[in-house]
Amino acid sequence: MPPVYRGPFGKPQAERLLWRAGFGPRPGEAERLAKHGLHGAVHSLTHPGRERLRGPKPHDDNGHPLAPNDAWGHDQLWWLDRMVRTTQPLAERMTLVWHDWFATSQDGVGPARLMLRQNRLFRRHALGSFSTLLTEVTHDPAMLLWLSGVDNEKDAPNENYGREMMELFTIGADRGGYTEHDVREQARALTGWRSDWDDNLGPVNFRYDKRRHDPGVKKIFGKKGHFDWRDSCRLCVHHRLHPSFFVTKLWSYFIPTAPPAATRRELEQLYVHHGFAVRPVVEAILLHPALYRGPRMVKSPALYTAGLLRALRRGIDTEAWTWLMSLAGQQLFYPPNVAGWDDTRWLDTATYRARWMIASQAIEKRQLKPDKAKLPDNASKLLARAEGFLGQPVLTGQTHAELKHFAKRALGDANAKWKKEQYPALIENALRQLMASSPDLQTC
User: Fold this and answer.
1) Which of 175, 301, 395, 430 is 20 to 30 A distant from 245 in Cα terms?
2) How far is residue 9 from each of residues 41, 280, 293, measured CA to CA in Å?
3) What's the half-sphere exposure (Cβ side, CA atoms, 13 Å) at 370?
4) What string of DSSP letters covers 140-185?
5) What is the pLDDT of residues 389-422, one digit of tens each?
6) Is this prediction's pTM over 0.90?
7) Alpha-carbon separation of residue 225 from 20, 131, 232, 234 (angstroms)
8) Backbone angles phi, psi at 443, to 5 degrees
9) Where is 194: in which H helix or E strand?
10) Residue-range domain boundaries for the chain
């Protein structure tokens, strides 16, 4: 079995777990989770009860319910709302993982209803069998459109999905796992899907048509047979290089450094022993010492935004999140390409400005009014209030010291009566913004 973390499991460790395996803690949640101990905490995330969405229902800028199938950007708000309100954060986080793993963009699909259908598929199989998930994704309508599955028929085989299924989904590129001959033969095996066109709905009636399938003998990975699309999936999952590809890629979503060789082998054995089930591997990763002792990870824009809203107990009440997350580099349902988002490039001078704007948008509704708020002119108390406002996040000593130094200097400039009365509120507003934008809250 892979090694298990044996160190202290208090609020800092519980908070990191909630960020890595979900979308961050609500106020008091990390403290409550820490009381369960490491194993109890991980079990509560991997075996949650029936899902409930807690908190105010989402609406647009005019107070109307969201229309995710019809209004531009509402599909993204619908999903962000689930991230904020879910009581099954790990399942929702895995839904985001699979969206990146099997990256499908609405740009090449069209109707939002098909992207939402795929999203429900990812959620349904979040911690289940990867073999089943791959099979379901292969004939999912959004994927059939995105990677030309409906254009793949026996007289004109299309290699798009067959290639990506091996390169990005199951085996990996440049590992000697497949050849161009395998790509062509996979394309033949995957033939047979089609759809119809409705002038009002677009593509409809996705189905398998045997007349479009190539029934001949194919040779894939050195094996011969009258393979079809199900065989294509099975051959990939049972490929000798699939377990190492799977556990290494899955690990990267939770821990930013590569797994030690021994750990990788143990995770592979665990994965195969459990019949290609996802949950046991995720549990082992969440229990691993590297998650708690390793370096921090930069939060994606979706994770950062959802986490701020959870900490503030604020629901989706504006359409601004759609364009703000896009400016920050992540537009849900629109990954940049079939390889998904590049997690190493979340922060640059442009995207950081967008994150500053996200923080500002998140806290602006509860800004203190300097002419009305009566606050103490004490730097420590103002900082404590700002920390409480953001759900008491764990801060490094350096960040805490810098924020306190800022508050002290700002209070020191209050050299008139009106400044002494109004500066504390202005300073606390600034502390909230600075804290929300700090390295400690941009990473986990």
Assistant:
1) 301
2) 10, 21, 11
3) 15
4) -HHHHHHTTGGG-BTTB---HHHHHIIIIIIS-TTSSS--HHHHHH
5) 999 999 999 999 999 999 999 888 878 888 788 9
6) yes
7) 43, 20, 11, 13
8) -125, 170
9) strand 193-198
10) 367-444
